[in-house]
Amino acid sequence: MLPYARQSVDESDVAAVAAAVTAPYLTTGPAVTAFEADVAAACGGVPAVAVTSGTAALHTAYAAAGVGPGSEVVVPPLTFVATAATAALLGARVVFADVDEATGCLDPAAAASAVTPRTAVVTSVDYAGLPGDVEALRRVADDAGALLLEDAAHSVGTTWRGRPVGGLADLTTLSFFATKNLTTAEGGAVLSPSPQLLARAAAFRNHGLVRDPAEQRWPDEGPWHQEVHAFGLNYRLPDVLCALGSSQLRRLPAFVARRAELSARYDAALADVPEVRTPHRPADADVAWHLYAARVPEQDRRRLFEHLRAHGIGVQVNYVPAHWHPVFADLGHRRGECPVAEQWYREEISLPLYVGLTDDEVDRVCDLVRGFFGA
């Protein structure tokens, strides 16, 4: 089976991990600090806090933003459920807003209609690597007195109007899962230009512990003393995985370039198949493509999916709209709330895209798609 996604690990990555395994610190050591600096450098110099997953990054970012009972978070439904679930777990009300028909990213007009005086965060999701309309979404968030969060799980390596993802919003979350643009196996990061938000994120990922005597309520307890002023969790990413991440970051430009080549090859091979809509390519972004998200007529999507799987092609659908999950249905959400996202889901099929994919393999996939549609 040709997979739909696969990590790219080479000898330099293995050497970095081996060195970390034999170092004095397996976790909470210098490789974590180095990785955070490397992430920041790749994201325009915006400081980063490493965490254990992209989901942990979202949970941490929402906590840093003060999301909780009584607050609302605006989220597009065309995303993995974690983007919404982590806000709900903190007690917030999730408000789903529809997506732009061309990009699949949060529609600023829909977001503007969704905000209320209780909105704490407007969350934009970089679907398939495409950034949302950051400028328009920034105005929506600012007008609502809310923070703008960019869920950039798909888009590390993307630039928007010459600025790298990571410094475009008040808070940015990254994912380094095995299928992402670079990997630490599991892992993620929170970035923010705000020292206050970053400090809250750093505390939350470490149980909320306060070790600075100047900030403690009872600093005279002893040199061992630490306090918890606000609840947090253990979301610490260990040195071993951070070492892998730093090694992968050195290869990120090559990863982005190869994904661009593969995506362009798909575009060219499928350009004359009228049933296939290839991904939108914005003029103001240099996209680090995470998915090759094609769209086909909804009546054909399942049959094409099964046809490709039967021929050994690992395709996927991204995503079941978040508000369709029973957990959100039980909270009162209904199908039909976000018709553009729902129609996108009915048509979407993700073709294989990863650095190790060969040109011949892309051609094989395209031949099967073309044959299915009689092209």
TrEMBL record:
> Which GO MF terms does the UniProt record name?
transaminase activity
Keyword field: Aminotransferase, Pyridoxal phosphate, Transferase
Q: Keyword Transferase, does the record have it? A: yes
Which InterPro entries would you find in this protein's record?
A: DegT/StrS_aminotransferase, PyrdxlP-dep_Trfase, PyrdxlP-dep_Trfase_major, PyrdxlP-dep_Trfase_small
> Which Pfam families does this entry report, sorted A to Z?
DegT_DnrJ_EryC1
Please tell me whether the keyword Repeat is annotated for this protein: no
Q: What cofactors does the UniProt entry give for this protein?
A: pyridoxal 5'-phosphate
UniProt record similarity statement: Belongs to the DegT/DnrJ/EryC1 family.
Please give the PANTHER family that the UniProt record associates with this protein: DTDP-4-AMINO-4,6-DIDEOXYGALACTOSE TRANSAMINASE, TRANSAMINASE
What name appears for this protein in its UniProt entry? DegT/DnrJ/EryC1/StrS family aminotransferase
